[in-house]
Design goal:
alpha+beta; Serine Threonine Protein Phosphatase 5, Tetratricopeptide repeat; Ribosomal Protein S5, domain 2; four-stranded antiparallel sheet; 52% helix
């Protein structure tokens, strides 16, 4: 204890005089001596000489115990010699029972070493294995979640893990900082400030926490305060050099210019105001449709980055279970195959506000919006034929999103944009299930004669739309009886112009002339169906 106190006060001569009393015969104290001598060498010289010293001494120890190997691994890790640390942690792991809590701890440390080396695959594997052994370890939950946040990876899952960690250790400043930063990343700045304010109160001298708090204050337009906390970071002795460079830019220019520019675009939901099935070509059905777009939208953040591959992530209420085979990923795969991006790579983060399996074309419109962005920024320059070809490969509805305005899709596949169409308010309802597009279309037995091959503006008028249908609706109502009840109830409240399912469902839409009627309908519906998704929107 005396030696440790001298060490903490940088009185290394006094430490060494005490350490000389620890002889080789007393294994425990001798090992403490070697570790402390190596640490002194690091403080007085550098990491390299410190590691050389501990290596030379360790190699002379016959049959070192697990504790010594563990200490050595931690020594390597703290000295940022992650490869050596991993080797020693691996040596320990191989000796431990698979369900041992000790194994969980060592996996946690090895996973952290992999993470620092940028080997995220190995890191995730170790950390998830550690959590499997001990799912209630708040620090492992926090570490893995924060790693995912920093990579814009599985943001929703990371948030869930942080909430669990916080429930377990609600006073831990590192966990508080992590959950605050998570809220920052999903742009819930008010909630983020609550946590980050507490974190900086608990750790006033921590560079990262001060940086995070400065960022959130800037976003809340409290710029003087933001610069105060960023300047704090510059005043700390332990602030790393690369962080100092970033902070110096922030102090002068703010957040906006301290990072690579991120472009935000809206991806609007699509409505089938009417839809007919006119036949079948090979395996696909031929459809015609009157299409509108509404102000309900996903938010897409996109920027070019220097990575080796595209990085696409989703967050928000409706982001769960979106896999790697999503429409945006498919779009980039096709563009890369066609060499249209010329090896440029992009980071895309999508806030999902449009539900899945709803008939609103959320995924298709995401891909279309990214495509439009790339064209607008002149990153790609496809002709009309190439645009159609790429969009059709991604998904049948994607081409509609490149227009993103009122249009008519004829049975021949031609799309006609219609200008100055009437605007409608709508109440959209989706139950707690989705409709399988494949199941709905496979049940189609009747075809309709083409009606929309000569698109006109009056097709968007109430008189015309009332007499139209969604040919898929009858099938969906039969297969999903709850949808029929929803439609009947919507038809009974506030006198809608008409009520119709969109796409292959499961969203039912009630159309109105006024916003007031629309909102009243929503309120009445929510009183009866509290757990169903229900929003109001306006056609654009």
């Amino acid at each position: 204890m005396v030696a440790e106190n001298f060490y903490l006060n940088d009185e290394f001569d006094k430490v060494q005089r005490i350490l000389k009393n620890f002889k080789k015969e007393d294994e425990f104290y001798y090992w403490f001596r070697l570790k402390k001598e190596a640490q002194i060498i690091i403080q007085e010289q550098d990491y390299e000489n410190g590691i050389k010293y501990i290596d030379s001494k360790f190699n002379k120890i016959e049959n070192p115990n697990i504790k010594m190997i563990f200490d050595l691994a931690n020594f390597y890790k703290n000295s940022k010699n992650y490869e050596k640390a991993i080797d020693r942690y691996t040596e320990i792991i191989l000796t431990l029972d698979d369900n041992s809590l000790i194994k969980s701890d060592v996996l946690y440390r090895r996973g952290g070493s992999y993470e620092r080396m940028g080997n995220y695959e190995k890191s995730d594997e170790d950390l998830l294995h550690a959590l499997k052994i001990d799912p209630s370890d708040a620090y492992i939950l926090n570490y893995l979640a924060y790693s995912w946040l920093e990579r814009d990876y599985k943001i929703n899952e990371a948030m869930d893990m942080l909430k669990t960690a916080y429930d377990l250790k609600s006073n831990d400043p590192y966990i508080i900082d992590s959950i605050g930063w998570a809220y920052f990343l999903i742009e819930d700045y008010v909630e983020a400030e609550k946590y980050l304010k507490r974190a900086v109160e608990l750790m006033p001298d921590d560079p990262i926490v001060n940086d995070h708090y400065g960022d959130i204050l800037w976003k809340l337009n409290r710029k003087i305060q933001a610069r105060y906390f960023w300047n704090n970071v510059l005043s700390f002795d332990d602030t790393e050099e690369d962080m100092r460079e970033k902070i110096n830019i922030k102090v002068i220019e703010g957040i906006k210019n301290s990072y690579m520019k991120i472009n935000k675009i809206k991806s609007n939901a699509k409505l089938n105001l009417a839809l007919n099935i006119t036949g079948k070509k090979k395996v696909l059905h031929k459809i015609e449709s009157i299409i509108g777009f509404i102000d309900l939208h996903d938010v897409i953040s996109i920027n070019q980055h220097n990575g080796k591959k595209h990085h696409i992530s989703f967050y928000g209420k409706f982001s769960k279970n979106i896999g790697k085979k999503n429409t945006v990923q498919r779009l980039f795969q096709i563009l890369d195959k066609e060499n249209l991006l010329k090896n440029k790579k992009f980071k895309v983060k999508i806030k999902k506000l449009i539900p899945q399996e709803a008939g609103l074309g959320g995924g298709s419109m995401n891909a279309a919006s990214v495509f439009n962005y790339l064209v607008k920024k002149k990153i790609i320059n496809p002709n009309h034929q190439k645009t159609r070809s790429i969009c059709d490969l991604v998904g049948s509805d994607v081409i509609l999103g490149t227009i993103s305005s009122s249009c008519v899709l004829s049975s021949s596949g031609r799309i006609k944009k219609i200008y100055n169409t009437p605007k409608y308010y709508s109440t959209l309802v989706k139950p707690d299930f989705g409709c399988s597009t494949k199941k709905i279309y496979s049940a189609v037995r009747k075809y309709t004669k083409s009606k929309y091959n000569k698109p006109k503006k009056n097709m968007f008028g109430v008189k015309y739309l009332i007499d139209q249908q969604n040919a898929l609706e009858t099938i969906a109502l039969k297969k999903y009886p709850k949808l029929k009840k929803i439609k009947l109830f919507l038809e009974s409240i506030n006198n809608p112009l008409f009520v119709r399912m969109t796409g292959s469902g499961s969203t039912i839409v009630a159309y109105y002339n006024s916003l007031k009627s629309c909102k009243l309908a929503k309120a009445k519906f929510k009183r009866k169906y509290k757990n169903y998704w229900c929003v109001t929107a306006k056609t654009i």
